[in-house]
Design a protein that fits this description.
The complex is a heterodimer of chains A (about 350) and B (about 325). Chain A contains 13 helices and 13 strands. Chain A has about 350 residues and is of the alpha+beta class. The radius of gyration of chain A is 23 Å and the shape is globular. Chain B has two domains: about 240 residues, no CATH class; about 80 residues, Elongation Factor Tu (Ef-tu), domain 3 (Beta Barrel), CATH 2.40.30. Chain B has 13 helices and six strands. In chain B, α6 runs parallel beside α8. The chains are: A alpha+beta (about 350), B alpha+beta (about 325). At the A-B interface, β6 and α13 of A face β2, β5 and β6 of B.
Chain lengths: ~350, ~325
C-alpha cells in the first residue's frame, strides 16, 4: 500500500478534518464516481454523511470522557464510522440488523476483564461479519466460537508493550518487524523475545498467514533475531502500527481454522466488549474502574487511547487506498530503518573504487 | 536434441551408475574433518576447479604442497582411489575428445586449446577407463556427441575458410586463447573488454581481425562448453540434482546484462543445505521467479561473496554467467564479429 505522509501537530484533528469531507454530498458523489459506482441516492448520501458526523461527535465526546463511559462512546463512534465508510466502499448501505456479537462471562471461570468472551453471531445480518467483509475481506468468523478479550488485546500492535507487562504468560499475536537496509539488500527481522512466551519461534511463525508466499524460509542465524527476506515479486503482508512500524500477525485458531482479522475489526471487537460491559454490567465495570489493583486497567486505558487515535486513521486508509501517516514536523518522520553505518559506507566506497580500477585495467 | 538436454540425460545416467556411489563416498571421505588429512585433501581439490582431475593433481603435487609454508600433511591417495578417479577422469576426457573430433580433424593445431584441462600440466601417470567401473552410459554419451556436432560454434569453426586461420602453432593458439579468456574474466561478468568493444562496434565490417576473432571466440565457446559439460558430470557424481536457485531462496537479482559476450547476473540468495557450498566454477539452475525478471536456465558461478552475522543472517552473492543451449557462456561472442 502506498504511504502518504501528512505533517501536522494535531493528527487527531487532521484525520477528522479529512474524514469530515465525506459529510458533504458532492464529496460523497465524487468518491462513488472515482470508483466507477453509480451516484448514491439522496437517502444513501444522508446515511453516510450522518454516520460520519455522528462518529466524529462520539469520538470528540470520548476524548475527554471518563473511563466509566469512554468505551461505550468509542464503540458507538467506531460503529457509526464503519457503517458510513462501509456504505461508501460497498456502494450501498450494509444490511446490518444487530451487533453481530454478544458478550459472555468467561467459560473457564476467569475473573479478569480480559477473560470476558466475545461470541460472533448472526453472520449475514450482524455488524461484525458485515464490517469484516468490507474492511478485512477473507476473514470469516465462526458463529458461536468465542474470542477472549485477552486474545483481542494481545493482537493489537501498539498495545503489545503494555499487554506483555500486564499479562506476561499470555500469548500475543502481533510480531514487531524491523526493517534493515544493508547496501543494496533490504530485509526484515524479528527479535526472538517477540515470540515470548512461546518456547520455539517456528510454531508462531508458521501461524502467520501468507508467510511462505511472502518470504523465503526464515533464517535462524543463532543470534537475537529471526531473519525474514521477502520473496521477489511477492505481495507484502502484515500491517503497520501508529508509529509506522511494521507488524506481522499470527492467526487465531477458531474451530479448526486459522482466522486473522485486521486491526480495525479487532479494535471494534474490543470496543464492543468494553462498551457492552460498561453499559450493561456496571456492577462489574465500576469496581474495575475505581479500584483495579492488577494493572489491567492500564492496558484497557491504553487500548482506548489507541482506538481513539487509530480507528479513524485506519478508516481513512481504507477509503483512500493509501497508508496515511501523520507526523510531527518538529520531530520529523519516525524511521524504523537502521541507518547505514560507517563500516557500511566504507564498503560501498571500496567496491566503487575497485570497479573503477578494474574498468581502467581491462 | 540440444547439448544441454543431452547433458542432463547423461547426468541422469551418472546418478544411476554403480560406480557413482563409490566415487561419491571417496570424495566425501577426503573432504570431511574425520577423513585422511583432516579433509584438507578435498578442500584443496575443490579449489582447483577441474573436477576429478583435481584429486589426481593434488596427489601428484602432494610433496610440493606439504613442503610449502602451510603445515599441510596430505596423505597419498590409495592405489584403488587413484585408479577410481583416474578411470572416471579418463572417461570424461575421452568424451571431450569425441565431442570435438570433427574440429580437431580439420584443425589439429587447436586440439590443446580446446582441451578444458590444458592449463594444468599433464599427469605423470596415464589413466584409462576401467571397463568394469564405467561412469558414463555409452548410449547417452553417444547422444551427447551427436548433439555436440550441432554446437553453433563448432559449425562456425568447421565452416571457416582455410585462409582465415592459416598460421599458428598449437602452443601459440593455446596461449592466445587462454589470454583471451583471461581478458574476459578479468572484467567480471557483464563487462565487455574494450578490445572486443572496439572491434565489434567501431571497426569496419571488413576489418581482417574480425574473422580471426570470430574463429577464436568460437574456439573459446566450444572449450567452455566442454568445461561445463565436465562440471555437470562431476556435480552429478556429488548430488542427484544441480543446486536450484528459485523464489524460495533468491533475495535479489541485480546487474543483469545481455551483451556481445553473453548474459549475466548477480544473484543474492539465502543458502540452504543444497546451495551453501556453491562456489566459483559450479553450475546452478536458476528457475523463473513469478512476477519478476524472466531469467532462467543454467548458470556458471564466476564469483562469490558471502556474509554471515548472528544478527543479520547468511547471504551469499554470486556473479554468474548464463549458459546457452550449447552449455556455452559466450554464445553471442563469435556471431558479434
Amino acid at each position: 500500500m502506498k504511504v502518504r505522509t501528512i505533517q501536522t501537530e494535531e493528527p487527531r484533528l487532521e484525520q477528522w478534518r479529512l474524514l469530515s469531507r465525506y459529510s458533504y454530498e458532492p464529496n460523497i458523489a465524487r468518491f462513488f464516481g472515482s470508483r466507477g459506482a453509480t451516484a448514491p441516492t439522496p437517502s444513501l448520501t444522508e446515511y453516510i454523511a450522518g454516520s460520519i458526523r455522528q462518529a466524529e461527535a462520539y469520538f470528540v465526546a470520548a476524548t475527554d470522557a471518563p473511563l466509566d463511559i469512554q468505551p461505550l462512546l468509542l464503540y458507538y463512534g467506531a460503529a457509526n464510522l464503519l457503517a458510513g465508510a462501509g456504505a461508501m466502499l460497498a456502494a450501498g448501505k450494509l444490511p446490518i440488523k444487530n451487533h453481530g456479537m454478544t458478550l459472555q462471562q468467561s467459560s473457564s471461570g476467569g475473573g479478569r476483564i480480559a477473560d470476558l468472551e466475545i461470541l460472533p453471531v448472526s453472520p449475514t445480518a450482524g455488524a461484525l461479519q458485515l464490517f469484516t467483509n468490507v474492511f478485512s475481506p477473507g476473514t470469516v468468523f465462526l458463529s458461536g466460537v468465542p474470542w477472549t478479550l485477552e486474545e483481542v488485546l494481545g493482537s493489537i500492535p501498539d498495545l503489545k508493550e503494555h499487554f506483555v507487562e500486564c499479562f506476561p504468560q499470555a500469548r500475543t499475536y502481533a510480531l514487531a518487524v524491523e526493517l534493515v537496509r544493508r547496501e543494496e539488500l533490504t530485509f526484515e527481522r524479528i527479535a526472538l523475545d517477540q515470540f515470548a512466551p512461546a518456547p520455539d519461534p517456528r510454531e508462531p511463525l508458521e501461524r502467520v498467514p501468507g508467510i511462505s508466499r511472502a518470504y523465503i524460509r526464515p533464517d535462524f542465524p543463532g543470534g537475537r533475531y529471526v531473519i525474514l527476506r521477502r520473496k521477489l515479486g511477492a505481495a507484502e503482508i502484515g500491517s503497520h502500527s501508529l508509529s509506522g512500524g511494521k507488524w506481522l500477525h499470527m492467526a487465531h485458531e477458531k474451530g479448526g481454522k486459522l482466522v486473522e482479522p485486521g486491526q480495525l475489526v479487532l479494535m471494534l471487537m474490543g470496543l464492543y466488549a468494553l462498551g457492552h460491559l460498561s453499559r450493561y454490567f456496571p456492577e462489574q465495570w465500576n469496581p474495575f474502574v475505581r479500584t483495579d489493583q492488577t494493572g489491567e486497567r492500564m492496558v484497557v486505558e491504553r487500548f482506548l487511547q489507541i482506538t481513539l487515535r487509530y480507528v479513524p486513521n485506519l478508516v481513512l486508509n481504507a477509503l483512500s487506498g493509501e497508508r496515511i501517516q501523520f507526523v510531527y514536523p518538529v520531530s520529523g518522520e519516525p524511521s524504523v530503518e537502521a541507518p547505514a553505518g560507517y563500516e557500511e559506507l566504507k564498503k560501498l566506497i571500496r567496491r566503487e573504487c575497485e570497479a573503477v580500477l578494474r574498468e581502467k585495467t581491462v | 536434441m540440444t547439448i544441454t538436454k543431452a547433458a542432463y540425460r547423461l547426468c541422469k545416467s551418472v546418478v544411476r551408475a554403480e560406480v557413482r556411489r563409490e566415487l561419491q563416498e571417496r570424495i566425501h571421505n577426503l573432504s570431511i574433518a574425520s577423513g585422511p588429512g583432516g579433509g584438507q585433501f578435498g578442500s584443496l581439490a575443490s579449489k582447483q576447479g577441474v573436477q576429478l582431475l583435481s584429486f589426481l593433481v593434488i596427489d601428484q603435487e602432494r610433496a610440493r604442497i606439504s613442503a610449502g609454508p602451510l603445515p599441510l600433511a596430505l596423505p597419498p591417495l590409495s592405489e584403488s582411489d587413484r585408479k577410481l578417479f583416474g578411470s572416471a577422469h579418463a572417461e570424461m576426457t575421452r568424451l571431450d575428445d569425441q565431442c570435438v573430433q570433427p574440429v580437431v580433424s580439420r584443425w589439429p593445431v587447436v586440439r590443446t586449446a580446446l582441451f578444458p584441462y590444458s592449463h594444468f600440466p599433464p599427469l605423470a601417470e596415464t589413466h584409462r577407463p576401467d571397463a568394469s567401473k564405467l561412469l558414463l552410459s555409452e548410449p547417452e554419451a553417444a547422444n551427447l556427441v551427436e548433439a555436440f556436432a550441432q554446437h553453433s560454434d563448432m559449425r562456425m569453426i568447421l565452416t571457416t575458410p582455410d585462409h582465415v586461420f592459416a598460421q599458428g602453432d598449437e602452443n601459440g593458439i593455446h596461449q592466445a586463447l587462454l589470454e583471451f579468456l583471461g581478458r574476459i574474466q578479468q572484467g567480471g561478468v557483464g563487462h565487455v573488454p574494450s578490445a572486443i568493444e572496439q572491434l565489434v562496434f567501431h571497426a569496419s565490417s571488413s576489418h581482417p581481425q574480425r574473422a580471426v576473432m570470430r574463429f577464436f571466440s568460437a574456439l573459446l565457446s566450444v572449450r567452455e562448453s566442454l568445461h561445463n559439460l565436465n562440471q555437470m558430470i562431476y556435480q552429478a557424481i556429488l548430488a542427484d540434482k544441480p543446486p536450484i536457485l528459485d523464489e524460495d531462496c533468491i533475495i535479489s537479482i541485480s546487474d543483469t546484462h545481455n551483451n556481445v559476450v553473453g548474459s549475466s547476473a548477480v544473484i543474492a540468495f539465502q543458502p540452504d543445505a543444497y546451495t551453501h557450498f556453491l562456489g566459483p566454477g559450479d553450475l546452478a539452475l536458476v528457475k523463473v521467479i513469478p512476477n519478476h525478471l524472466p531469467l532462467k536456465g543454467l548458470v556458471r558461478v564466476e564469483g562469490l561473496r558471502f556474509e554471515y552475522s548472528r544478527d543479520l543472517g547468511s547471504t551469499h552473492t554470486i556473479s554468474t554467467r548464463f549458459l546457452n543451449d550449447d552449455l556455452s557462456p559466450f554464445g553471442p561472442l563469435s556471431k558479434a564479429f
